[in-house]
Write a structure and sequence with these properties.
This protein has helices at 13-16, 43-49, 102-106, 137-141, 143-156, 173-184, 196-204, 219-226, 244-250, 273-277, 290-302, 318-327, and strands at 2-6, 17-21, 31-40, 66-74, 86-89, 120-124, 128-130, 165-169, 188-193, 209-212, 232-237, 251-259, 281-284, 309-314, 333-337. It is of the alpha/beta class. It is globular and about 60 Å long.
């Protein structure tokens, strides 16, 4: 089988992503062998490949956490899957429900485990879910990391209610999935972007208020204005150090800031006073468990939510796809299709 391997951590994407051959995997008793049909990119994959996520990951490593495909063979002890089933992989396969242990949270695809940028992959039976018939492999491949993180922030680790107001930062994979879920939950949605064209697309998807964070560097002031100075109930905080101060100014007392990403930096002094004086709940979110994924899939099926895919690259152009992700021109998800 063909797969990509990371051989060295360097910012040069074409130098560190090597297309190579490995022997076809053979399923053990509890394994399910999947012919991968699509994968999707997350910002974490870019950070991993350039060595900024975890430079201690053992190399060579097959990158990418997210993928979907078709079962081609199953081990003797497998009961849930059969050849021909259409499936999607879990980001953290051992985390099935509830509070994950350190090893459950760490044992993830695309580092330290080999990832999905591979024509064939063995999954443990408990690391796969079936996908609805109407959903394409590419749509399913867009879900395991970004969409599940959005779902966990809103519903598993948060308590989004109809009538709540939510603030989404930027128009990447996590924020756009959150927009779609929050819309079906009856929330009022405020979203920021560096691009007016992207904000227009967000409005078409159901955003109620849009703010260009480049034109309005004090965007929290705009958020407070459009909420009648009340502030939002929840912030999906994907910017990190560069946006946290404004997120804290945007949230209402007793509201929640879901800390998810570091697109705008990972270290910065933080003024803790607004957190304690306003009783703000700052909730870290790391993707999610199988039970949440199952619930998310049921909601996606019920509401016929079609994941927003900006662009699809062929497998052979995976390095170009990563460069496209790095440049941040996308809206929603970037995917890769296998021949
Ligand atoms: N904790 C977790 O479990 C988890 C899971 C998934 C992702 N993440 C993290 O969450 C972040 C987002 O992930 P993603 O997959 O959605 O990334 P992505 O698809 O690469 O999102 C990129 C977009 O983020 C927006 N952005 C960049 N800087 C911004 C800023 N200063 N303010 C507001 N928006 C900004 C830009 O939107 P515009 O072009 O519209 O300006 C950019 O296009 C990343 O840091 C990722 O590592 C964490």
């Amino acid at each position: 089988m063909r797969c990509y391997e990371i051989h060295q951590f360097t910012p040069d994407l074409t130098a560190n992503m090597r297309l190579t051959e490995r022997p076809d995997p053979v399923p053990d008793a509890h394994d399910v062998l999947v012919r991968m049909r699509a994968a999707s990119l997350n910002f974490r994959d870019y950070l991993t490949i350039v060595g900024e996520y975890n430079p201690r990951y053992r190399l060579p490593l097959i990158p990418l956490s997210d993928g979907a495909g078709e079962v081609v063979a199953v081990g003797a002890a497998v009961s849930e899957f059969k050849p021909g089933d259409r499936v999607v992989g879990l980001f953290a396969p051992d985390w099935q429900a509830g509070e994950g242990t350190v090893s459950m949270l760490r044992n993830t695809l695309g580092g330290p485990q080999d990832g999905t940028l591979s024509e064939l992959r063995n999954f443990p039976e408990h690391g796969l879910l079936k996908i609805p018939d109407w959903m394409s492999f590419t749509e399913a491949a867009s879900l395991p990391c970004a969409a599940l993180t959005a779902w966990s922030a809103l519903f598993t680790q948060g308590n989004l209610q109809s009538g709540d107001t939510i603030l989404l930062l930027g128009t990447g994979g996590v924020s756009i999935a959150a927009l779609q879920f929050a819309r079906t939950a009856g929330a009022r949605i405020i979203i920021t972007s560096s691009s007016d064209a992207k904000l227009e697309r967000a409005r078409e998807l159901g955003a109620h208020e849009t703010i260009n964070y480049v034109d309005r560097p004090n965007w929290s002031r705009e958020v407070r204005k459009v909420t009648g100075m009340r502030g939002v109930d929840m912030v999906i905080e994907v910017g990190g150090a560069g946006t946290l101060e404004h997120s804290l100014k945007s949230v209402r007392p007793f509201g929640q800031v879901s800390l998810i990403g570091i697109l705008a930096g990972r270290e910065e002094p933080v003024n803790l006073i607004p957190i304690l004086m306003q009783n703000v709940r700052v909730q870290g979110v790391i993707v999610g468990h199988r039970q949440s994924f199952e619930q998310m899939l049921r909601a996606i099926d019920m509401h016929s939510i079609r994941p927003v895919i900006d662009r699809v690259f062929p497998f052979e152009e995976s390095a170009e796809a990563l460069a496209y992700l790095r440049d941040g021109k996308h809206f929603g998800k970037i995917c890769i299709e296998f021949n």
